[in-house]
Amino acid sequence: MDTRTAPAARAIDPDLARALVDVVGGPHLLTEPDVVASYSLDWTGRFRGSTPAVVRPGSAAEVAEVVALCRRHGTAIVPQGGNTGMVGGGVPLHGELVMSLRRLDLAGPVDGSTGQLSAQAGVTLAAVQSAARDAGWIYGVDLGGRDSATIGGNVATNAGGLRVVRYGDTRAQLLGAEAVLGSGAVVSHLGGLLKDNTGYALHSLLCGSEGTLGVVTAVRLRLVPPAPSRVAAMLGMRDASAAVAAAQALRRTLPSLSAVELMVRAGIELVCTVTGAPPPLPDPHEAYLLVEASGATDPTPELSAAVASLSGVQDAAVALEPARIAALFRYREAHTEAINSLGSPHKLDVTLPNAVLADMVGRFAGIVSAVAPEASVWLFGHVGDGNVHVNVTGVAPDDDRVDDAVLRAVADVGGSISAEHGIGTAKRRWLGLNRSPTELQAFAAIKRALDPDGIMNPHVMLTPA
Ligand SMILES: Cc1cc2nc3c(=O)[nH]c(=O)nc-3n(C[C@H](O)[C@H](O)[C@H](O)COP(=O)(O)OP(=O)(O)OC[C@H]3O[C@@H](n4cnc5c(N)ncnc54)[C@H](O)[C@@H]3O)c2cc1C
Predict the structure, then answer these.
(1) What is the whole-number distance in angstroms between the Cα of residue 282 and the centre of ligand 1?
(2) Hey, is 351 helix, strand or coil?
(3) Domain that holds residue 352
(4) pLDDT at 2
(5) Ligand 1 atom closest to Cα of 86?
(6) Which pairing describes strands 97-100 and 54-55: parallel, antiparallel, or unpaired?
(7) Can you give the pLDDT at residue 7?
(8) Which residues lie below 8 Å from residue 364, measured CB to CB, with a gap of 6+?
(9) H or E element at residue 259
(10) Which CA distances in Å does 321 have to 230, 235, 308, 318, 327?
């Protein structure tokens, strides 16, 4: 696979290696080239880095010792969770040491009376969801990478996903965090008080900081009551404009709405080809809307009434059984893998203001073909949040013309160049499209204060000092 490849990393300083082994134990400092290579290539296949070593601390105390050692040796660190990030932020593209958090894998306990869960950073999202479910609650964030993505990575990227329209993003679930800052200081605020206006919300700042300020080691999460009755419908829509208008209407007319996802004909056909799934509806449609409603009581009548009031619906398949609902969601979730099967994509995950959303969905193919006629464009996304994933295949990993054209067009209409994946290294060049020079100066000042030597993910989000 063609990738944006970094030069080989320099070997680790032997003094640092010995000191790291003293902290984490020999088996948890990985230096074998074949082994560390798997930590150096990102999920999309677009970003291949190189690292002298992967260190795997087993506790927050070990994380703190490792950060202190790296600071003393002037060694940059890339924190890594499940390595499912999409913007090249979790792989060592400049020869950094990788710190894998996956050994911090304790989920729980759940405080059943408040509906809160504590978890260490390396716990997968799926394990968090399962611990919440076992205790009679649910965790409101869900996304396709759930079996590998870690809760620390979700916090670091402020992950969004399928149910933001109902429960909000990761930041909305985060009540507190424990972290080792780049300075080596350990900050911990895990009491879980719902109302707590005692100064700066450091956990909110760390959320979305992409490993640039410190390493998240544990979190306290808000859970929500279960919504055991679910129904999903796959709507075949006249066109993408009608699908966008319908999604916007459903937010108002369907109080039990828990997900609304946009897909288009080409994406559905690709998913069917790659996965072997039958088409979701007997005839093809230019656009598809996957709608889920859930609640304590059966939301089917409410969903039916809301769908009946929409215009542009050409056909619908309704699912009530969990297995059938999962099968409908599979059409949406399989987009990521199906597109990856064509080669490493450029993943441009953007948010658009409501007023221009439909128009922009119609314009993306033209914006891309104007600079790269050979490229293919794949559109899908969490359209209820204004979030569209513009995926582009058929362009070289280091050819940024398409990224530049799409991100500028999005910023020009008041959209965000990163809805949920973060800035990473992939979008750093364009952060100034959304953030003013004064904001970027404030970001740099925060970075200097919490990470004075600039060892935490120095090439991510901000230009290195
Ligand atoms: C199939 C699929 C579907 C996806 N769907 C969605 C979606 O719907 N919505 C969405 O938002 N994302 C989605 N993603 C992207 C990805 O899953 C999220 O960005 C996720 O939050 C990354 O978690 P991770 O543990 O894999 O982090 P990594 O990829 O390991 O790291 C991501 C970033 O976080 C930093 N980081 C990781 N752990 C820590 C830590 N403990 N402390 C400090 N910094 C840390 C890294 O340095 C890096 O900058 C999807 C991915 C896949 C593969």
Answers:
(1) 36
(2) strand
(3) 346-423
(4) 44
(5) 15
(6) parallel
(7) 75
(8) 377, 379, 388, 390, 406
(9) strand 257-264
(10) 8, 17, 21, 10, 10
| pTM for this prediction | 0.97
- Using the CB atoms, write b or e for 220-230: b if 16+ within 10 Å: bbbbbeebeeb
In a domain, 336, yes or no: no
State whether 213 and 135 are in the same domain: yes
Q: Are residues 82 and 117 in the same domain?
A: no
Tens digits of residue pLDDT in 363-417: 999 999 999 999 999 999 999 999 999 999 999 999 999 999 999 999 999 999 9
Six-digit token string for 149: 């993505």
1 falls in which pLDDT band (50, 70, 90)? very low
- Between CA 137 and CA 297 the distance in angstroms is 16
Counting from 1 in the atom list of ligand 1, the atom nearest the Cα of 424 is 49
The residue whose CA has the least distance to atom 36 of ligand 1 is 153
Other C-beta atoms closer than 10 Å to the C-beta of 291 total 26
The tokens describing 355, both together, are 């007023």
DSSP labels, 197-212:
-SS--HHHHHTT-TTS
| DSSP string of 125-147, one letter each residue | HHHHHHHHHHTT-B-S---TTTT
C-alpha 286 – ligand 1 centre gap (Å): 31
H-helix or E-strand containing 280?
none
User: Do both 321 and 393 map to the same domain?
Assistant: no
Annotate 46-108 with DSSP letters as a single string. SEE---S-EE--SSHHHHHHHHHHHHHHT--EEEESSS--SSS-SS-TTSPEEEE-TT---EE
Question: What are the beta bridge partners of residue 41?
Answer: 48
164 and 261 belong to one structural domain:
no
